[in-house]
Design brief:
This protein is α+β, with helices and mostly antiparallel strands. The chain has a single domain, classed as DD-peptidase/beta-lactamase superfamily (Beta-lactamase, 3-Layer(aba) Sandwich), CATH 3.40.710. The chain is built from ten helices and nine strands. α3 packs across α6 and α4 crosses α8. The longest helix has 16 residues. The chain is globular. The two termini are 21 Å apart.
């Protein structure tokens, strides 16, 4: 712990190189804060002290500059399955093929391939993002090909899906579209920058709804003082100590003009549980 705290005092401006296999928490400057060095030091120390469990990985970024403020994530530049964190980009790829006209859909739960047994009922894109509805995205991605998703992946800085990927694999429901946590974090920052582009507003509306009452509602419960945008995901476990799956959450706060991005992975739990951890982290940083 002393080594981590000492590292938290080193306030150098480093981006991707801040994340290393050591998994230690190290800060960078936060230009959006009144005192960048104080914010970076405080955030890094809080996360190192209060969230040192080995099952938690995280990236904390300045949403305006993309700089890394603190991190503990082994091999954060290594492509892995990212689950439903890829759904927003699937939606944009579909939109480009259909003039950004998104259909409604009736999710019937288990019979229609959703994670929610009783289903989400009638949903549009915004509700499907909020509830991370697998049934909706199975329908949306049914005729998509990797070649159609690749341009969107490239524009947002994501690794492209495997050429043989198709259908639900292109909505994060499998392992054929792998990309790195760092790339995903930067892709979500790019969503904010592209908020005026076709399709993006529906995605961001879904993320706002997710943080309030969807799969990421635990963010609002733990961190109610500021609105947030959030997306959860659950994917196959890539740890050496295998679990049924790993939960992911991306949070941008505040919602109307994000200043920070926090991405969290929690070993062995679904994305909704990772959202609880993310909310607790944000609350401790704010305190």
């Amino acid at each position: 712990m002393d080594a981590i705290k000492n590292a938290a005092l080193i306030l150098t401006l480093v981006a991707f190189s801040l994340v290393s296999s050591s998994g230690r928490t190290r800060p960078a400057e936060f230009d959006g804060a009144e005192d960048p060095s104080l914010f970076a030091q405080s955030a890094a120390e809080v996360l190192a002290r209060d969230f040192s469990r080995s099952d938690i990985s995280f990236l904390l970024m300045d949403a305006r500059t993309g700089r890394l403020l603190a991190a503990r994530w082994d091999d954060a530049d290594k492509p892995i399955p990212m689950g439903s964190l890829l759904k927003p980009f699937t939606a944009l790829a579909y939109g480009e093929q259909h003039d950004f006209r998104y259909p409604s859909h009736t999710c019937r739960g288990t019979p229609s391939g959703c994670w929610l047994p009783h289903g989400h009922g009638d949903v549009d894109l915004t509700a499907a993002i909020a509830g991370s509805c697998n049934s909706y995205f199975r329908m949306l991605s049914l005729d998509l090909t990797a070649a159609e998703v690749a341009p969107v992946a490239g524009r947002y800085g994501l690794d492209r899906p495997a050429p043989e990927a198709s259908g639900p694999e292109l909505a994060g429901l499998g392992t054929l579209w792998r990309t790195s946590p760092l790339r995903v974090a930067h892709a979500y920052l790019e969503l904010i920058r592209q908020r005026q582009q076709p399709g993006v507003s529906q995605v961001l509306d879904g993320m706002a709804l997710s943080a309030k009452q969807g799969t990421a509602a635990a963010v609002h419960r733990a961190f109610p003082s500021s609105g947030a945008l959030a997306k959860t995901g659950t994917s196959v476990c890539t740890h050496s100590r295998q679990a049924p799956g790993d939960g992911f959450t991306v949070v941008l706060a505040p919602a109307d003009d994000p200043r920070i991005l926090l991405m969290v992975r929690v070993h062995g739990v679904p994305g909704s549980q990772a959202a609880k951890t993310a909310g607790q982290m944000l609350r401790r940083i704010e305190d």
